[in-house]
Amino acid sequence: MTGKERRNAVFHTIKDSKGPVSGKELAEKFGVSRQVIVQDMALIRAKGYEIISTNRGYLLNAPQSVSRVFQVCHTDEELREELYVIVDLGGRVKNVMVEHQVYGHLEAELNVTSRRTAEKFLEDIQKGKSSPLKNLTSDYHWHVVEADSEETLEEIEKMLKEKGFLVEEP
User: Fold this and answer.
1) Whole-angstrom Cα distance, residue 64 to residue 87?
2) Most buried pick, 39, 41, 69, 91, via CB within 10 A?
3) 167, 147, 166, 139: which is closest to 87 by C-alpha?
4) Beta pairing class for 51-54 and 92-100
5) Using 50, 70 and 90 to split pLDDT, how confident is the model at 66?
6) Can you tell me the distance from the alpha carbon of 39 to that of 54, in angstroms, rounded to the nearest whole number?
7) Residues 153-169, mean pLDDT to the nearest whole number
8) Helix (H) or strand (E) holding 161
9) What's the pLDDT at 94?
10) Residue 22's closest CA among 37, 9, 36?
11) pTM greater than the 0.85 cutoff
């Protein structure tokens, strides 16, 4: 294994770990000294990855998020309320997707992260720049929603259901 391959493997070991990974553990796993691991960390950091050294080992400082796909259906008048439900509970609407009978899968990036970005999106729709993709499929569509935890996604799902926006599997 070359040094570059080892550093790549070390990075992925830390990235995929549920907790800190000790230098000793990495050294044993890759058959090198702890000093080599320290040098590898410096080179990995130099590539722009934020590796944090703790007293229990190395961690990758990366935003943690989870995502879920929600199938929803609502009118144009309810679009603001749908977006507000998601962002007010801490979600981020990454995209919108529809399945068109002729064109197939259509998807557009939204990145609605707050009421402010929701309002900007809605303003563009109202100015006639375009119309929502959901209008192609009788208001049925999907969103990938990101959040900081599964609990947040559960809250979002519960509220979408309460509002009557969530399409439930038969």
Assistant:
1) 17
2) 91
3) 147
4) unpaired
5) confident
6) 16
7) 94
8) helix 150-162
9) 95
10) 37
11) no
